[in-house]
Amino acid sequence: MILVVGSTGFLGGEICRRLASQGKAVRGLIRSTSNPERIAALKAAGVETVVGDLRDPETLLAACSGAEAVITTASTTISMQPGDSIPVTDQQGQLDLVKAARKAGVKQFVYISIPANMGDCPLTTAKRTVEKAVQANGMVYTILRPCIFMEIWVSPVLGFDYPNAKATIYGDGHSKNNFISLGDVAQYAIDSLRNPAARNAVFEIGYPQSYSYLEVVRIFEKAGGKPFELQFVPEAGLSAQRTAATDPLQCSFSTLLLNMAQGIQVDSSQARQAFSFPLVSIEEYTRRALGK
Predict the structure, then answer these.
(1) How confident is residue 32, by pLDDT bands cut at 50, 70 and 90?
(2) HSE-CB of 24 using CA atoms within 13 angstroms
């Protein structure tokens, strides 16, 4: 049995679906307040669901019972609910999950983190704190540090409105970033369960070629056959936004935007040596997004 924490999220849900399609026994941790449609989709895919919450350690122990492996993708950065915060959920909740997994006899733990070169903020503190706990807890572990998700950061969700040929560009648009497809991160997590090279390892993961946001715009313009209307948010404005942030989520999100404007690049060579599947490029993602 594989427990997926964050199963109603974009990444966690994709991991559940892929595991279930392979005939694996999968259990998804859901909240009582989780989206009913996403819960129904999990069940339709053959995923067992269990109600629990990272803020309630007792439910975590019950969820981990009988599981051989845990994959956790959960984060409040996109799906924050009342009572959530980065220190409470992303940090202490994940620490409690690590303890519960060890107590329940879980043998393997896969944790989705963030790149090593992210700026200091509450999310970075939470991720690094949990990474250390995962490494010190005695279970076989894999820590994945994906770069920028195409499906989130190159989508209307965060201002890249390709259906209407409009895009908000953070910074001047020239800094290079490594992007990665959500599906590829899901595959890394799944393959980590059976790949000997992933045992007790930390991987920076991203498509090997880096792109600036203006290059991404040009790729969409060429594929879609129409020019984009661009709006720029200067780095100075992002820095001011970070300075003025009044809570952990605001501080973390503004730090992510500033880092992206300055360019987030990772060395994914170790991951490419350990895993053999092909990665989705920005060009391929563009074709999929535009239905080409």
Answers:
(1) confident
(2) 22
